[in-house]
Amino acid sequence: MDRRENIKVLLAGTVATGFLISSGCAPDDIKKSESIIAAGLYGRTPKEIEVDSKLMADTFFSDHEKKIVSLISEIIIPKDDVSIGATEAGVTDFIEFMVKDYPKFQLPIRGGLMWLENLSWATFDNSFVVITPEQRIILVDKIAWPDTAEEDMLYGVKFFNLMRNLVCTGFFTSKEGIKDIGYVGNRPNQWDGVPAEVLKKHGLSYDEKTLKECLKIEDQHKIVQWGEKGNIIG
Q: Which of 82, 140, 153, 225 has its CA 20 to 30 A from that of 176?
């Protein structure tokens, strides 16, 4: 799935960039490493790439099952004024990939979808895909609250717990999901020293040497150049 590859490349790029800067690699080496990262091949063996390609090409869910997965995903994380919903964020495709990548998910997910479909027919005499949104919520409420669920709903509770975990994982690792929670990760920030009011409160101040060498905002993102004698030359 594209998201899985994007996250992998993003993480690889973060690690690799730090390594390249700190180790002083030659420009050709840097370009080569950047091309590997851009191609999504960083840290992947030929066998792993082959497995990923096969998983992407295979199909697990039927169209009907996929529709139910999408409806459940949108119930768990619906679209609101702040963010798009789970379906628009590609969560259905994420779950499709996960059940192929981790086969132990296949039986509980497919069995749970069948169980929910049977519950829908037994309750409303129609498919979960066809019943109204309000009726779907009635069914979901029976299995969404483990502490108050009836005993005959426990299989559905386990299924819904798994679905909720997968939906949340898929959404909050998507670009929109990360944006929704305001996560910025490890990124360089701008430090311009101890605030002036704090220094004044304690009767302190920076000397000219510190201001010149450590607190020049325009120089904070420059890579230090070292001379043969260990002195800073630029």
A: 140
